[in-house]
Amino acid sequence: MAAKRWKGGAQDFPHVQTVTVTAYAAATTYKLTINNKAVSVLGSAAATADVNGVATALAAAWNGSPLPETADAKATSNAAVVTLSSTPGVPLPGLASSVSGGTGTIGAVTQVQAATGHWHWDNAGNWDAGAIPAAGDDVYLDFTSDEIKYGLAQSLVSINSLTVPSSFTGKLGLPDNSTSGYVEYRDTELQIGVTTLIVGGGPGQSSPLIRINGGSVASTVRVWSTASTAETNRMSFRWRGTNAANVFEAYGGSCSIAIEGGRTANVSGGLKIAGANVRVGQGVTINTLTQSGGGVELNSNVTALTKNGGDTVVYGTTAIASLTADAGATYWRSQGGISTALILGGGAAIDFSGDLRPKTVTPEVQMYAGSSLTDPGGVVTFTAGVRLNRCDIREVTLAIGQNKKLTIAP
Questions:
Q1: Where are the domains of the chain?
Q2: Between 372 and 410, where is the model more confident?
């Protein structure tokens, strides 16, 4: 076990790749493809009717292409060989060559030099210990605005801790959309096992973008603060991990858990929200959710939700087995229901007005003085009715729509 601190500063080298045109045909289209987009030339369009002419034309087509991905590299040609050199430090993965039509051929893309530099997690020169983080290490990203963009595929490594306090104001990972104008095709999140992950806290402005995939390693994640998000309609800290023992606690900042479609996470060890704003995706497994402040957007089922404050918005088809609220508001925008308990304390409110799909609250609703239940559209079936505890109907807000029959019982 060792302590390792990010310092950045490694020398940048470009990603250099070559491809050789191996046979000429006027009817053949020669292609270079990146991010599923092709730059192409027809053999008959080459200035000279040979492989050298095709290579020259292909390099010119790359350099003149309107595709934003091509701006990350420059192409040159020498005889039949096209060489692409990226902006120093920027990897250009997935570059491929192909042909269609005619009898012309082109060789496979060959890597001459891998990109590396001051943005790369996997460059030992960026770490004060002269070695990249390894199993059991305690890793610190602090007192820097340097970005960590590449070399993020570290899923075979499991570190003891990763601490990213507010003094780290750079970015860890990549946004979904490149600033150059394309959907990002490189790794966008740091893939690493980490037992204890701390985000924010202490002096500083915090980071506007941190993306981590903890894989199958059991993690305790604790978030104190983030900067305003660097991505439109995204949260600053985006996390996922699949171990059932994962614990996620958010006391400030903006966070999301597996919010992207098709991704999964597990926080069965406990999800606790205080002053943070948290979005929870559809593929998240949750046992207990405790909320005392902030805001939560729920898209996954919850076994037990306990609220002492804050706003909760329930979306889609999400169902909650047990909801116990002493304070705070719950806005139900889901077709799912409540199956085992709904208890509304004096400072609690639940509002079903934002979704007109039918839903069912199976247990007897327990309401206390000062609580509020709103269902003006009458879309909720209250299977066991509503019980007023230590109060009468004048002490609660009960809006359940028109043409309802109230049965009075002890």
A1: 16-113, 133-300, 322-410
A2: 372
